[in-house]
Amino acid sequence: MLREKSCGAVVFLKNTEVSFLLLHYEAGHWDFVKGNVEPNESEKDTVIRELREETEIADARFIEGFREKIEYFYRRQGATVHKEVIFFLIETHKEKVELSYEHVGHTWLDYQSAMKRLTFKNAKNVLQKAHELLKTRGITDPSG
User: Fold this and answer.
1) How confident is the model at residue 144 (pLDDT cuts 50, 70, 90)?
2) Which residues 6+ apart lie within 8 Å of 143 measured at CB?
3) pLDDT tens digits, one per residue of 104-116
4) Which has the least CB within 10 A, 9, 60, 79, 120?
């Protein structure tokens, strides 16, 4: 069985409220910034590189204490691939996004709308954990 590791981020922006960045992938699903770890690259280096490549966002600050792992299987050219994705939580102040060729759209959404828009259950679980951490840190409205 093939193994693959990616890293990504739940990216948020705080103005009057917190908004989360979702990317619309060519395959049709909505998800977070993420990409494969390259040789000799740390998890956080991968996240910073992918964030720049996919959105042109360089203004990024990791929120300490958030590292969520998801795992799933998919098929590629007849082979089963075990995929591991590590997500971090990143705050940016840059709302303008320049998409790479990998994506057909993006949106900034509040928590409830982002939960509805995300395609996959494991992504929703990651967003829920990120939202809970932001609430406990007083970054989002505790009632939201």
Assistant:
1) low
2) none
3) 999 999 999 999 9
4) 79
User: Which amino acid is it at 104?
Assistant: V
Q: Which CATH class is domain 2-136?
A: alpha beta
Q: How far apart are CA 140 and CA 134, in angstroms?
A: 6
SS (H, E, C) the chain: CEEEEEEEEEEEEECCCEEEEEEEECCCCEECEEEECCCCCCHHHHHHHHHHHHHCCCCCEEEEEEEEEEEEEEEECCEEEEEEEEEEEEEECCCCCCCCCCEEEEEEECHHHHHHHCCCHHHHHHHHHHHHHHHHCCCCCCCC
* Residue ranges of domains in the chain: 2-136
Strands 2-14 and 79-92: parallel
